[in-house]
Amino acid sequence: MGSPVSPLTANIFMEWLEQRAILTAPLQCKPRLWKRYVDDVLEIVQKDSAETLTEHLNQVDTTSSIKFTYEEEQDHQIPFLDTLIIRKPDNSIKLMVYRKKTHTDQYLSFTSHHPLHQKMGVVRTLLDRKDRIVTEEDDKVKEEEHIRQALAKCGYPKWTIDKVKNQMEAKQQEKTKKSFHTKSVINRK
Length: 189
Description:
This protein is α+β, with helices and mostly antiparallel strands.
């Protein structure tokens, strides 16, 4: 631990372990989806087979260095990283920002002696996460309101959020404009 190659070595080991585990998994618990980031895994398995798969995963590593645990969907939702995956009644999904119960909404204080661009970066990061993760417009409105309230508690004036939001919208419009221009040039040929 602490070596610059530790994350790389751990990732290589985890890839080897998961490939071996998935290949040898019993058919009744073979995952239909397996997504891993560092030590968090999102998997889709047949109902009531998560425990069997977890037992299998824990037998693959003969050193017993790696211990898999599992969390099942509750109330049609499950967190993965900072995303909350919600299964709707029609079995489609929507995504929202996930915050652990211990999350405190403590961000860099606006009154700190950090440069303004770093404070604006906090705002940009939170708004960008909202735009990239949240899938439904009404949820995006709620998430932005949450961001505004959390940043207000950290001393951020309203103009900081408005300015960053306007910058992001202008950048998106410019990107769309360039994309349209490129398509127009291609279509003329």
